[in-house]
Amino acid sequence: MPIIYNQPHLLGFYIAGLFEGDGHIVMPAVYNKHNPRWHITFHIKNQPLAQKLLSKIGSGFIRYKTKNNACVLTVSSVKGLKWVTTMTNGKFRTPKIYQIHLLIDWLNKHHSASIEKLPVCTKPVSRDPWFAGFIDADGSFGIRYTKKLPLNKANTAGKQRKQRVSCRFRLEQRTVDLKTNVSYAGVLNLIANYLGVGLNTRMQTSTGKTYYIIELSSVASITILINYLNMYPLLTAKVLDYNDWRTVAERIINKTHYTQDGLAEIQTIKAAMNVNRTVFNWHHLDEF
């Protein structure tokens, strides 16, 4: 399925989306001290994808942060920096575009690269894998399964809790870029509009910071997302949670989620997703 990412144009959009979620560039304070460093941070479970991307780039290394359960794909050679720049230039959609523009300035000034600084991509997010990369960085898939309570355990108002099954997708992002103070509202509204939902905010109680949040659970929005990810698949281990989520979503769409078999399958799937997942496979990278 991910064979589409053997097309450089599409892989570039995916990497741009992944970078805009979990990447950053460290620029040198003084020229000749060191080259810029292009980073994407992965959860340690996604090491196979980091290694696969490293092999595609052909230059760089992976640094392991054991205490943080993370690994960081790092590119610092001029050859590697030119590769990631060429692949992603013109494919950025968030305020992080200023980082790739700084890198282009550095390459043009010190290595005669003559790279044009392309503007923010304004194409609909449905037309390329950028959104897939962004989901791999900052999206999450969840299943809600609320069992029906017997009458003797109903609440004090005398209302019996109904049995409920739903699939939820969530995407969360800061409201503004920390260095430029440019808002993320534009691109997040594009995503929300495409999915047929609103763009909301929430305040993190532990820090007091406000974040944008996109959530969906309706059949219409779920169908849009499934159709998109059928065209542009995820590449991190998140694809395993998505596949389980899609199985439940398809039961909901086909109205078989409240059958005895349906509820048993959903309960089993929910119990093994996300932080409860212990078995991983990377067959989806075999043809990539």
Automatic annotation (TrEMBL):
GO terms for cellular component: mitochondrion
Pfam families: LAGLIDADG_1
Gene Ontology MF terms: endonuclease activity
UniProt keywords, alphabetically: Mitochondrion
Taxonomy, superkingdom: Eukaryota
Residues covered by the Homing endonuclease LAGLIDADG domain: 15-102, 132-248
Gene3D superfamilies noted in UniProt: Homing endonucleases
PANTHER family to which the protein is assigned, alphabetical: INTRON-ENCODED ENDONUCLEASE AI3-RELATED, INTRON-ENCODED LAGLIDADG ENDONUCLEASE FAMILY PROTEIN
Protein name: Homing endonuclease LAGLIDADG domain-containing protein
Organism per entry: Ulva flexuosa
Gene: orf288
